[in-house]
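We both want to read discrete structure tokens more fluently, so let's practise on a single case. Would you supply a protein for us yourself, any chain you care to pick? Would you write everything just below, so we can both look at the same thing?
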Amino acid sequence: MNKLPVLISVPHGGTEIPKEIADRVCITANDKFEDSDAFTREIYGIENDVSAFVSSSIARAFVDMNRDLTDLPPENPDGLVKTQTCHGKPIYIKGKELDQKLTNILIKNYYDPYHRQIETLLKKQDDLKIGLDCHSMEPIPPQIAPDSGGFRPSFCLSNNFGKSCPNDIIEKLKSCLQQSFKLSSADILINKPFTGGYITRTYGNKPIPWIQIEMNRSLYLSSPWFNAQTLTASPRRLSDLKNNFKIMLELFFKSAFQN
């Protein structure tokens, strides 16, 4: 079976605390869960079916792969490394916050390898047609979100207003997403509330187009699929979403890049 010619990046699906900072962390398992794109490595994890796949096992609260190297606290508490979660919970024990040395170690050990892997795959995999940076989003935006207090659709697709991917390609992806997940056109917005993060902006059209995908967590972190006490989701539901995602890509490649 031919692999789908796509590079899938899943930067925020990890759950691990880096060993270098394990004795400094004060957030709870629930805080870490809420700050992550929980179960996205499972939902988007079709690595056996695609040409290239990159994901991180490290939780977003500690190292954010979708940030610029200069995007750091204190200017941005939600930067590459963070001082607080997206809901304002302090991440580190008072007096044991990250210093510059530890920040550099986290960048060297986790952030740099993630981006080197993307860069290597883009150079070596000459069959690639598109890159997808895959995320989830909270149904109700947190206070730090650009759309705080606003409406969130089932999916948001982003191409930085045409800069990371031609508009006709993102429209085609929307159509295939609508078909595979059985959604209406209004359920899928383009560049609203998100316009594309660092990964999409950095690698878009260099040399292949990139699209950021955000799936609403209500599709699997809500009744009857989610247990809030154990922070577990229905394996069947996750498998169904993964299958829908794969079907969407199969539909997309049957039509989007035909000569």
